[in-house]
Design a protein that fits this description.
The chain is mainly beta. The protein has no helices and eleven strands. The protein is globular.
């Protein structure tokens, strides 16, 4: 069975940091792109960051560039999202998703999705 287990969310003050984890199993991790998405209350889901394990290419949404860092650890099939300098507008449920190949696919094309983890940033 394919599983994506997102964890690491919580409550943090503005300016603080959190590290989200996405533990993957059931597929060939090295062939897949892993994306982080978020959905704030009343808003559409948006892509935050993505890493393509096959070629190492990384992308970030403009809103998080310079504050968030995505990384992939093959030893434990886990993708991390280090979130620094958090802002109240980063408050959302964060999801990780996987798709074979690159990060150029559209959101709806991501094949596997994990459950969300809630990040709340207080002002």
């Amino acid at each position: 069975d394919v599983q994506l287990q997102a964890s690491g969310g919580g409550l943090v003050q503005a300016g603080g940091s959190l590290r989200l984890s996405c533990a993957a199993s059931g597929f060939r991790f090295s062939d897949y792109a892993i994306g982080w998405f978020r959905q704030a209350p009343g808003k559409e889901r948006e892509r935050v960051s993505c890493i393509a394990n096959a070629d190492g290419r990384i992308s970030y949404a403009d809103s998080v560039k310079g504050r968030f860092t995505i990384s992939s650890v093959y030893a434990n099939n886990t993708v991390y999202l280090q979130m620094d300098s958090l802002k109240p507008e980063d408050t959302a449920v964060y999801y990780c998703a996987a798709d074979w190949g690159t990060c150029t696919v559209q959101e709806y094309e991501f094949e596997f999705w994990g459950q969300g983890t809630l990040v709340t940033v207080s002002s």
